[in-house]
Amino acid sequence: MTIQSPQQILVIKLSALGDFVLSIASFQAIRAHHRAAEITLLTTVPYRAMAEASGCFDRVWIDRRPAWWQLGGWLALKRQMTGGGFERVYDLQRSDRSGGYFRMLANPKPEWVGTVAGASHRYVMPGGPARHICDREADQLALAGVPRPGLPDLSFLTADLAPLDLPPHYALLVPGGSAHRPGKRWPAERYAALARHLLDRGMTPLLLGAEAERAEIAAIARVAPGARDLCGRTSLEALAALGRGAGLAVGNDTGPMHLIAASGAPSLVLYSHDSDPAKIAPRGARVETLRREVLAELSLEDVIAALPAGT
Fold it and tell me: What residue ranges do the domains of the chain occupy?
């Protein structure tokens, strides 16, 4: 029997950054639909602060993601989930792991809105053309009566940008990406050429990345005097705040670009054969994508021609 107004709800979303950002609109739709409920999020450490700041959740639990052989970890997680008294679970992770959480719960199980066999509200993705993760998630939520999410509202993510001494007109360049998938990176020398182009137009490029990108960001800054190296100086909150003030953002298919695009920056995201924008492009008010099988074949002229209109 379907519970019309569940009062104890669990939402599961574990990782990764881009996927988490894409689910923020779903978090907000769930919160709006269940205003009187107590909603708990099960997530991982990197997303705790963002989840707590969102206002969507009454509690945030951390999943330590026990390995299959760590029986104590699984038992502890089972006790925690059982003790929560959840009447409904929205499984936005939709993975083998989160499906395992459903299977480990004793009967009677809570209502489960997800893809695992046996779920009370089971979403089965239809065949045919590739569908974006947000569209699939909207269809999943609709099974439980949650209205279709709109664009995410990231106004809850704030940061003091004064220490960065920002120029009045700036663009964000995100040349990094997953270290184990180098094919997702447009060559650093092309980013340097783009930085010089932006400088000629009176826009200061801000080079963003983590420690793993320090060498290539430093190399871009050396050959594009006037670009600002902000490697390692921007939190997730700062990325969102920077995105709200940016005149343009260009980057590879990587988590920070999802955050920047969702914050409202006019964005161009570059894709190779390693990923499909039809499935996982960032969502935001002004987002364009450009794809080549091999990003090294993507020219500066191609990127300039594809920049969002008006930037």
Answer: 8-142, 162-306
User: Would the pTM count as exceeding 0.90?
Assistant: yes
- What is the phi/psi pair of residue 166, to 5°? -70, 145
Sheet with 170-174: list strands edge to edge: 228-229, 204-207, 170-174, 248-252, 267-271, 287-291
DSSP 3-state assignment of 63? coil
Q: What is the fold, at CATH topology level, of the domain defined by 8-142?
A: Rossmann fold (3.40.50)
Output the six-digit token pair for 169: 């007109």
* CATH architecture for segment(s) 162-306: 3-Layer(aba) Sandwich (3.40)
Question: pLDDT (tens digit, 0 to 9) for every residue of the chain, 311 residues total?
Answer: 577 789 999 999 999 999 999 999 999 999 999 999 999 999 999 999 999 999 999 999 999 999 999 999 999 999 999 999 999 999 999 999 999 999 999 999 999 999 999 999 999 988 888 899 999 999 999 999 999 999 999 999 999 999 999 999 999 999 998 777 888 999 999 999 999 999 999 999 999 999 989 999 999 999 999 999 999 999 999 999 999 999 999 999 999 999 999 999 999 999 999 999 999 999 999 999 999 999 999 999 999 999 998 88
Q: Do domains 8-142 and 162-306 have the same CATH topology?
A: yes
Report yes or no: 265 and 249 within 8 Å, Cβ to Cβ.
yes
What is the spatial distance between Cα 210 and Cα 227, in angstroms, rounded to a whole number?
17
In 10 A of CB 231, how many CB atoms? 22
Name the token pair of 298: 């993507």
Tokens of 199: 């400088």
